[in-house]
Design a protein that fits this description.
Helix content: 25-40%
Largest sheet: 10 strands, mixed
Structural class: alpha/beta
CATH class of the largest domain: Alpha Beta
Radius of gyration: 23 Å
CATH superfamily of the largest domain: Glycogen Phosphorylase B
Number of helices: 18
Bound molecules: adenosine-5'-diphosphate, alpha-D-glucopyranose
Number of strands: 18
């Protein structure tokens, strides 16, 4: 049965992206549409979005609309287009004073307000359409106030009565916390403010993600292992208590991969394509990338790749001592792409200076280089401290680029440790977050890479994995069906 779904996100591929959330919001929406659902994606119209390239046009009759809450008075307009290679509608909320900034996200004092405004405008858009989606699907802290707003500021509107809400947690490391003095920015007053987390208020703060967890009808996160992990103090980042309280509503659904974008058989960033039966082409791409980047090439060199946001989450601290030691001893080269926290940038810059022609660091963001690294590297390094799902390790598998991952979150759910004795498994998985463990993992990769028959078995296993959305989307459909059929829609919210 086709369902009606409003997908609310702060970023989506190909319009605006800082990380995996964008890939998932874009691909999941497209897959739901392909499965026959009426799904509408709603995003902010950031100034970084190339309107012309994406065919984004203003929508007649939806310009200069009021958006008024608390002390705030905005005017907004609706713009629209469709996702590429499909006619899935994507809608953009244009409020230049909030979304025309130098970066998508910031630590400005009104960061929470920008996304409260997005959430409210999306709800008012549904009102103007006279459209009550069966499912309002929010993502991360940015849109996590939607379930609470439906029970408070918009509770008067019977249109929303049948709406059920889903909150997907892509990363619990970002919670959208702001000062209790800014509660008026939510635009709810007494008695509704009693629904806010009272202990937090007394402590002088409001946590956006926490309210999503408390009030959404269902909570998902992006892998089954992460769903279990975030209920523990070690991974819950302070939200383990509310998650335990709502454990019956929490489930993990592993992200899918958009193989239209990420497959070496047709990747449009690559000049030549390959599959498991044409691996010599992968080798030529490796040669080409290494010479383009000025990396020294010898026959047995193992090329390691990194594509990452540079945050403590990604576990790059583990490389500080181990990589220089390994580069001193073994025949490997490294290409790293990413930016973020200065200490990681400084580390990779230093490594490049110390090992010229063996290490290349590209500071910044490049879709093209990210695809090239996936295709050309032998090994992909992803030693995350925590990883809700992770997409790059799944991309790597498809490109026959062997992932080295730590056994956590979605990494644990998507990479299986290779066993040379049986020839089964798809990558190298280590447990402990320490230098000895990652050093063992990297040395193991080098040892196995030196054995062509073994390596080729491992590469073939990796390339045979299938994480396509066509499987994963069924889990969301089942959840939506369950919620839509659950007519009372009650939650356990209380605090
Ligand atoms: P996260 O969302 O935590 O950053 P994921 O592995 O889920 O981690 O997704 C990261 C996505 O962002 C991937 O599509 C990856 O290729 C991309 N990415 C990350 N950093 C860069 C970069 N510097 N340049 C290009 N793409 C990047
Ligand atoms: C987050 C997580 C990442 C996940 C992505 C998409 O940014 O850090 O692990 O793959 O969201 O869900």
């Amino acid at each position: 049965m086709p369902q009606t779904i409003c997908m609310l996100a702060s970023e989506a591929t190909p319009f605006a992206k800082t990380g995996g959330l964008a890939d998932v919001a874009g691909a999941l929406t497209r897959q739901l549409h392909a499965a026959g659902h009426d799904v509408r994606l709603v995003l902010p119209l950031y100034s970084q979005i190339d309107r012309r390239a994406h065919g984004i046009e203003p929508v007649t009759g939806f310009t200069d609309l009021p958006l008024e809450f608390g002390p705030h008075r905005y005017r907004w307009s609706l713009h629209g287009t469709t996702l590429p290679r499909s006619n899935t509608p994507a809608w953009f909320i244009d409020i230049p004073v909030l979304f025309a900034r130098s970066t998508l996200y910031s630590s400005a004092a009104d960061e929470h307000l920008r996304f409260i405004a997005l959430t409210r405008a999306a709800l008012e858009l549904c009102q103007r359409w006279g459209w009550a989606p069966q499912i309002l699907h929010c993502n991360d802290w940015h849109t996590a106030f939607a379930p609470l707003l439906l029970r408070t500021a918009y509770a008067w509107d019977r249109l929303f009565d049948p709406v059920r809400t889903v909150l997907t947690i892509h990363n619990i490391g970002y919670q959208g916390e702001f000062s209790a003095a800014q509660v008026p920015d939510l635009g709810i007053g007494p008695p509704d403010t009693a629904r806010l987390h009272q202990d937090d208020l007394r402590a002088g703060k409001v946590n956006a993600l926490k309210h999503g967890i408390l009030y959404a009808d269902a909570i998902t996160t992006v892998s089954p292992t992460y769903a279990r992990e975030i209920m523990t103090p070690h991974y819950g980042m302070g939200l383990e208590g509310v998650l335990q309280q709502r454990a019956a509503q929490l489930r993990g659904i592993l992200n899918g991969v958009d193989y239209d974008d990420w497959d070496p058989r047709h990747d449009h960033f690559l000049p030549r394509h390959y599959d498991a039966d044409s691996l010599p082409i992968k080798a030529t791409l490796r040669t080409e990338l290494m010479s383009r980047l000025g990396l020294e090439r010898r026959d047995g060199t193992t090329l390691f790749g990194i594509v990452s946001r540079f945050t403590p989450q990604k576990g790059l601290d583990l490389l500080f001592d181990t990589l220089p030691a390994l580069l001193g001893e073994r025949d490997l080269a490294l290409v790293a792409l990413g930016n973020g926290d200065a200490r990681y940038e400084v580390f990779f810059e230093g490594l490049q200076a110390r090992f010229p022609h063996r290490v290349v660091y590209h500071r910044g963001y490049s879709d093209e280089l990210a695809h090239w690294i996936e295709a050309a590297a032998d090994v992909f390094l992803m030693p995350s401290l925590y990883e809700p799902c992770g997409l790059n390790q799944m991309y790597s598998l498809r490109y026959g680029t062997i992932p080295i991952v730590r056994r956590t979150g979605g990494l644990a759910d998507s990479v299986r440790m290779f066993d040379p004795a049986t020839g089964t498994g798809t990558g190298i998985v280590f447990n402990d977050f320490d230098a000895a463990a990652i050093s063992w993992a990297m040395r193991t990769a080098l040892d196995w890479h030196a054995q062509p028959a073994l390596w080729s078995q491992l590469v073939r296993n990796a390339m045979a994995e299938d994480f396509s959305w066509t499987h994963q989307v069924r889990e969301y459909e089942a959840l939506y069906r369950q919620l839509a059929g659950d007519s009372d829609g009650s939650t356990a919210a209380s605090n």
